[in-house]
Design goal:
Blueprint: E1 6-7, E2 15-19, E3 26-31, E4 38-40, E5 47-49, H1 69-72, H2 75-85, H3 88-98, H4 103-113, E6 115-117, H5 123-136, E7 142-147, E8 154-159, E9 162-168, H6 169-174, H7 177-192, H8 201-206, H9 211-236, H10 239-251, H11 262-281, H12 299-310, H13 313-319, H14 328-339, H15 351-369, H16 377-387, H17 393-404, H18 410-424, H19 427-441, H20 449-461, H21 466-491
Parallel strand pairs: 1-4, 7-9
Antiparallel strand pairs: 2-3, 4-5, 6-7, 8-9
Helix pairs in contact: 2-9, 5-7, 5-9, 7-9, 7-10, 9-12, 10-11, 10-12, 11-12, 12-14, 15-16, 15-17, 15-18, 15-19, 15-20, 16-17, 16-19, 19-20, 19-21
Length: 496
């Protein structure tokens, strides 16, 4: 049962300061027993959750205008989502994920393994959760669970008809109230933005997804994290407190032995951009493919994007703060630029880059398979497998049909795609392309000299070392030979 409302009035015991988020009226000397309670503002008569203003450097007032979720949602998130749902390979996985129904089991597990926090246990946590839920427009009940864990992490789940916010004990102990408001606003914001629709990595692995399928969903997830960060900042109001969260998440340090400087931390994102740009010009960019599978942008990039959002019209419109330095288009363009550092070229913001990359990956494999004059069924299936999440099955079959019918000049097409590939493909992606083409060449059980010639030609144009190709061919030939020998031995009749 909800605690009865109290009208702000007489002093009793210790006092705090608070502010009505609806009319902005400030109240001093409010009894601390009111914290975390629903109180009535004598000035405007509205109800609000009483919080200590001293805990929040930017105040605890709610936004001046109702929040338009679609305008706060990162544009990059909307673009990637649209690209994914248009592809059959992605849409099938997405629909399967949305049909999952294990919400009740999640709540039972949380009740068994965590502490459910209610107002008598922590008025502060309860009041922060209520404030955040009210700001982002969550109508469902929200429960708070704290579990014993040393790492700084928080999660949010659908648990029956409720939303469960799960905080690790380290976060509760090390984060200030504004930082907790950012974290909780971020987690609840995921549900306000319907991010529970995004499949997680465990589910994708269990379905045997290709690299490009997983990379596509992870690109969506990273953009969704930026959208949730924006809602977290709307709840927190102070961008420096939000960035301090990122510093603590990155370093694990919450003491004064290391000064948490938000501006200096944001500069790390600029350093990553400069290093990446310099590496690409020298054809040696530090770009591990593992970046594609990161569920979150790097924390320094998130910090930089929070700084940009705080200086944009999207944030100033919510709180009627000082004149913004960035309009929405400038904000979204910079967001796309930073997020694209971790995205595969198949989801690059530039439509031309996306088109060229998909075309190169497909044609390199098809032309390698066709180098010996024909493409057998095993090679076709291998090409389709490697293209899942990158190119539709229909498009792959269309290209294969053109090549099989002899409607394509192979040498001319090869020169065309190689000239495109050399202009923009990151180093690690070039290696991935060579690995895929060798896998296709070996699919029919033998790698012929004509197929090797195509692979070496691609490697030369892509600046992939010849030694890497030789090692790759040796490994595949050894693997194919072992498979052939094992089949022969298995079929050999036993002596009587």
């Amino acid at each position: 049962m909800r605690a009865p409302k109290r009208r702000i009035g007489a002093k009793r015991g210790e006092t705090v300061q608070t502010v009505c988020p609806n009319c902005g009226e400030h109240y001093a000397d409010v009894p601390d027993s009111y914290l975390g309670r629903i109180v009535e503002c004598p000035e405007c008569g509205s109800d609000f959750f009483c919080m200590n203003s001293a805990d929040f450097p930017s105040g605890v007032a709610a936004p001046q205008r109702s929040i338009n979720m679609d305008k706060l949602r990162c544009r990059r998130e909307k673009e990637i989502r649209q690209l994914l749902v248009e592809e059959n390979d992605f849409r099938t996985l997405w629909e399967e994920w949305k049909s999952k129904d294990d919400y009740k089991a999640i709540r039972v597990h949380l009740l068994a393994s965590s502490l459910r926090v209610t107002a008598p246990l922590s008025p502060l946590l309860v009041s922060i959760v209520r404030m955040c839920a009210r700001i982002v427009g969550i109508k469902a009940g929200v429960e708070i669970f704290v579990r014993h864990a040393p790492d700084l992490n928080a999660q949010c789940f659908l648990a029956g008809k409720r939303i469960a916010v799960v905080l690790n004990s380290a976060i509760v102990e090390k984060f200030s109230p504004p930082e907790l408001a950012f974290v909780i606003g971020h987690e609840i914001g995921h549900f306000a933005l319907r991010h529970e629709e995004i499949p997680n990595a465990t589910f994708l692995d269990s379905r045997g997804c290709s690299l490009f399928q997983k990379a596509g969903f992870m690109a969506w997830q990273r953009a969704a994290e930026v959208s949730a960060d924006r809602l977290g900042l709307i709840c927190c109001r102070d961008w420096r407190s939000a960035v301090h969260c990122m510093i603590k998440l990155t370093s694990g340090i919450a003491s004064d032995k290391v000064r948490a400087d938000a501006e200096i931390f944001c500069q790390q994102a600029d350093e990553i951009v400069r290093t990446r740009s310099k590496g690409e010009k020298q054809k040696g960019a530090p770009f591990p493919l593992a970046w594609w599978l990161e569920s979150h942008p790097f924390t320094c990039i998130r910090a930089k994007l929070l700084r940009l959002f705080a200086s944009s019209s999207a944030f100033s419109n919510a709180y009627d703060v000082s004149q913004p330095q960035l309009d929405v288009n400038q904000l979204e363009s910079e967001t796309e630029r930073l997020l694209s550092l971790l995205d595969p070229p198949s989801f690059h913001p530039d439509t031309t880059v996306r088109k060229h990359f998909r075309e190169i990956m497909l044609w390199a494999m098809v032309l390698t398979a066709a180098a010996d004059g024909h493409i057998d069924e095993r090679e076709k299936e291998t090409i389709i497998k490697h293209c899942r999440g990158l190119i539709s099955r229909h498009e792959v079959k269309r290209v294969l049909s053109q090549v099989v019918r002899g409607n394509i000049d192979i040498n001319r097409k090869l020169r065309e795609i190689m000239s495109k590939a050399a202009s923009f493909m990151p180093t690690e992606v070039r290696y991935k392309l060579i690995e895929d083409t060798v896998a296709v060449a070996a699919a029919d059980g033998v790698i012929l000299p004509e197929e090797e010639r195509i692979v070496f030609l691609l490697a030369t144009v892509l600046s992939v070392p010849r030694a890497f190709v030789n090692n790759l061919l040796y490994l595949w030939k050894s693997l194919v030979q072992r498979e052939v020998v094992s089949i022969i031995l298995w079929k050999k009749p036993k002596r009587s």
